[in-house]
# Entry
Amino acid sequence: MTLNDYVFTTYRDGGRGPKEYDCWGICRSARHELYGRSLLQLWGRVDPMDKGQVTDAWGEAVPELVESSPVPGCIACVFRGATLLHVGCVVDGDRGLSVLETIPRQGPRILPIAKFERIYHTVRYYDDRDLSQ
# Structure
């Protein structure tokens, strides 16, 4: 798939592609397909609206990841305190480094990092441990 292919998908809770994604599904797939990052767990049992479940699942993925600067293929994580609210994938877009995300009612979009950070306030970036050491 190309970045453009992801933009023309639709949002669906629990979506794992190739035509419907939730935020974890699109991030997981795009970082693997576009940037060769590891294919992280599906989280199929996780309700994306239950942020406690999302945060617990994130805790299972963290050992494979390390906090990093924003680089293409890393995960942009939106937090409120210790609770994970949302994720996107950093991409090399037309306007430089941007974040591919998908949200209910709107679907996928690509936002410049500065705009993503203005909207979501607390954003931390994570990349595969072996690529970031």
In short: The first helix runs from residue 3 to 7. Helices lie at 3-7, 23-35, 51-61, 113-120, 129-132. The domain at 3-132 is CATH 3.90.1720.10 (endopeptidase fold (from Nostoc punctiforme)). The CA atoms of residues 16 and 133 lie 29 Å apart.
